[in-house]
Amino acid sequence: MARIAGLFGRVEPRATARAYLLGLLSGTERKNCWQPAEHAGRHRPGPMQRLLRTARWDTAAARDEVRRYVVDHLGTCDGVLIVDETGFLKKGRGSAGVQRQYTGTAGRIENSQVGVFLAYASSRGRALIDRRLYLPEHTWSKDAERRRRTGVPEDVVFATKPRLALQMITAALDAGVGTSWVTGDEAYGQDPGLRAGLEAREVSYVLAVSCATRVRINQGRTLIRADEAADRLPASAWQRQSAGSGAKGPRYYDWAWVQNGTDEHRHLLVRRNPTTSELAFYLCWSPRIVPLSELVRVAGIRWCIEECFQAAKGQVGLDHYQVRNWTAWHRHVTLAMFALAFLAVATDDARPTRPADPNRPARSGEPVDLTVPEIRRLIGALLSPPVTSLNALLHWSNWRRSHQASARRSHYRRRLAIPSST
User: Fold this and answer.
1) Would you place residue 28 in the very low, low, confident or very high pLDDT band (cuts 50, 70, 90)?
2) Residues 50, 66: one domain?
3) Is the Cβ–Cβ distance between 24 and 11 less than 8 Å?
4) Shared domain check, 267 and 153
5) Per-residue confidence band for 366, with pLDDT thresholds at 50, 70 and 90
6) What residue stretches are annotated with the Transposase IS701-like DDE domain (predicted)?
7) N or C: lower Cβ tally within 10 Å for the chain?
8) How far, CA to CA in Å, does 142 sit from each of 92, 98, 110, 147, 248?
9) Pairing assessment for the beta strands 279-285 and 125-133 based on DSSP bridges
C-alpha cells in the first residue's frame, strides 16, 4: 500500500483501497465489493463501490506502479513480455464494451467483455502489468449514448486488439522495462502492424501464426504456406528440446526452424508434438543472431500468461466484479493485478536460496516450493479479522436480502412497463 498511498488525496479512499486489497487476498467466495466489505467489518459496501466508481484517485498511475513493482522484484535479463486476451462473461448489455463476441474463456461466441493484457515473465516469476478493455467498433465505438451511460472517455477510439497490445508494449518500453522479447498467440502474430511496430523498436519477437501463413524458404522468391514449408523439412532438421517445465515436468517437443526470405534475422519456427504430430508455427525476428534454443525458450514461455489469468481469476477475483462503468472496470482490474503481483513477489521471496533442478523429482516427504495459491491461503489466514460476531453476520444477511428485494421490485416494474407483444 505504501507504493500507491500517495495516489489518494483523502484518508477514507486510501483506507478503503487497503481493505479492498485485503479482501481480494482473502478466502472470500466472491470478491465483488459485498463480501470484501463484510470481510473488512464494514456495515455496507457503499465505500468500496465509490472507490471503484467515483472516488478521486489516479488509476493510470496505479497501473504504472504495478508495472514498476513487478519489474523491481521479478525483473531479470531474460524477461519476456507476453500479450493475450481473456473474456469476462456477462448477462446484460449495460457493461462497457459488452457484446456477443468470441472469447477463449468460453471457447465460443458469448455475451462478454474482452480485456487485452500484458504480462511480464522471467525466471523469477510472472504477473500481469497492463490492461486494456476492448471496445467493439460497431456496437460501441460509434454509439454515443451507450458510451455516455458507461462513462467511456471521449478520447477513447476503436483500436484492434493487436493495436491495444502494441500500445501496452510501447508504454512498458517507454517506462524502462528491460526486455528483448515479445511473444503472443495467433491473434497477435497474424497482425503485420504489431510485428512492424516491434521491429521499429528493435524488440525481438516469437509470435504464433496460422498454418496458412505465407513464407519464403531457402531464399526463394515464391511464397508458400507454413505447413507446406514444414512438410519439405528433412528429418535431420528436427531437434527435441524442452519448452520449459510444466506441472508434470519438462515439456518436450520437436522443433525445426528455417530462414524466412533472404534476411537471416527472420525465421519460421515449427513445433511438432511428438505424440500427436500436431504442428504449431511461429514467425520470429531478432536484430541479432540467436540460436534455436532461444527461440524455443521464448515460444514456451507464452503459457505463463494463461497461468496469470488462472491465478488472477481463481485467487484474487479478477472476474468477480459487478460493475458496468469504464472507470470502475479498470480500477477493479488494476487492484486485482496488484494483488496478484504481490502474491507473485511473495512466492519468489519464499523460494529456497539453493539452486533448483527442475528435472529432479522431489524426494519422499519433501514438499514442493510455495505456490501462488498457497501463499494466498497463508496471507488470507494471517490478515483475516477476528471471527465475525453473530450480529454482524445477521446484519449482512439482512442487507443482502433487502438489496435483492429492491432489485427484484425494480425488475418487476421494468417488465410490467413493457407492453406485451401479443
Assistant:
1) confident
2) yes
3) no
4) no
5) low
6) 8-218
7) C
8) 20, 14, 21, 8, 48
9) unpaired
Same domain, 115 and 52: yes
pLDDT given for residue 194 in this prediction: 97
140 within domain boundaries: yes
Regarding whether 339 and 216 lie in a shared domain, the answer is no
pLDDT class for 404, splitting at 50, 70, 90? confident
Same domain, yes or no: 113 and 54: yes
In a domain? residue 393: no
C-alpha cell at 292: 534455436
Least confident stretch, 47-56, 145-154, 295-304, 408-417 = 408-417
> Do residues 204 and 157 share a domain?
no
Looking at the fold, whether 332 and 269 belong to one and the same domain comes out as no
* Average pLDDT of the segment spanning 389-411: 75
Measured CA to CA, the distance from residue 260 to residue 217 in angstroms comes to 5
* Phi and psi angles of residue 119, each rounded to the nearest 5 degrees, phi first: -115, 155
Per the structure, the count of domains in the chain is 2
**Per-residue pLDDT at 358 exceeds 80:** no
Domain membership of residue 263 (yes or no) is: yes
- Amino acid letter, 388: T
β-bridge mates for residue 217, sequence order: 260
The answer to whether 114 and 101 are in contact (CB under 8 A) is yes
Asked if residue 384 is part of any domain, the answer here is: no
Task: Round to the nearest angstrom and report the end-to-end CA distance of the chain.
Answer: 58
Write out the residue range of the structural domain in which residue 266 sits: 186-301
Q: In whole angstroms, give the CA distance from residue 99 to residue 93.
A: 7
Q: Measured between alpha carbons, how far is 240 from 262 in angstroms, rounded to an integer?
A: 26
pLDDT tens digits for range 278-289: 999 999 999 999
- Number of helices (H) and strands (E), helices first, in the chain? 14, 12
Residue 422: predicted pLDDT: 44
pLDDT at 364 over 70: no
Clarify whether residues 202 and 329 are in a common domain: no
Residues 50 and 66: beta-carbon distance below 8 Å: no
